[in-house]
């Protein structure tokens, strides 16, 4: 099994009995208040202090250091995440792009709320492409790793454009459903937001600091 939880248990299991490995991990999950969630790589990296505390109950300090180093190696992502491009034509493409955005954010170590924010923006922009253009369009996710990780979200289409953009961005437009974050909501969620629209289509570029 290759999911984060099994990988963590495999590392711990090299130094502890299976039952103690389980114990250390579930105690760390509890102490990090992550109960009831699916563990991600980012969670495991953040849980290091709790795991260390658990390991100290069973192992001498030198071995604890070894296990933590093995942990580090096991959970370093294979390389910097790469840009991903999603054609948006069907409803299922919207969720695929949204999930990919969340995955990229987590790979870059973003907190859960920030990953949620980025995936909401992707979902809104992709849904608009799906709903308001006949030919569909594209979502491009461009991650930047490093000390200041970012996710650049590009949305472009060759649809009819948005003639009443000013009204929408001024908050004077009432969305059809009023349910989603919409364009204005998306703009408020991100650090940088640019939109150009006209008869040949719409291009949006939104950037989230992770
Ligand atoms: N890519 C696009 N191409 C053409 N028109 C668009 C596009 N995106 C948005 N629009 C137009 O702009 C309007 C406002 O979009 P916005 O996403 O803010 O709200 P909504 O889609 O109407 O409702 P909500 O997103 O809240 O469900 C839409 O109703 C639609 O007319
Ligand atoms: Mg919308």
């Amino acid at each position: 099994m290759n999911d984060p939880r099994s990988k963590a248990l495999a590392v711990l299991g090299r130094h502890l009995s299976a039952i103690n490995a389980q114990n250390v991990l579930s105690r760390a999950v509890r102490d990090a208040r992550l109960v009831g969630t699916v563990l991600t790589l980012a969670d495991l990296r953040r849980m290091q202090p709790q795991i260390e505390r658990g390991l100290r109950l069973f192992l001498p300090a030198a071995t604890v250091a070894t296990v933590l180093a093995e942990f580090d190696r096991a959970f370093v992502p294979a390389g910097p995440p790469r840009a991903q491009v999603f054609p948006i034509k069907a409803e299922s493409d919207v969720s695929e792009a949204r999930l990919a955005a969340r995955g990229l954010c987590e790979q870059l170590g973003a907190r859960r709320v920030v990953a949620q924010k980025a995936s909401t923006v992707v979902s809104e922009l992709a849904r608009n492409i799906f709903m308001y253009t006949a030919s569909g369009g594209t979502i491009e996710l461009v991650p930047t790793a490093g000390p200041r990780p970012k996710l650049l979200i590009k949305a472009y289409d060759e649809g009819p454009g948005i003639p009443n953009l000013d009204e929408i961005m001024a908050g004077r437009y009432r969305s059809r459903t009023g349910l989603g974050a919409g364009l204005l909501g998306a703009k408020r969620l991100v650090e940088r937001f640019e939109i150009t629209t006209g008869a040949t289509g719409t291009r949006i570029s939104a950037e989230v600091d992770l």
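DSSP finds nine helices and five strands in the chain. The longest strand covers residues 201-209.
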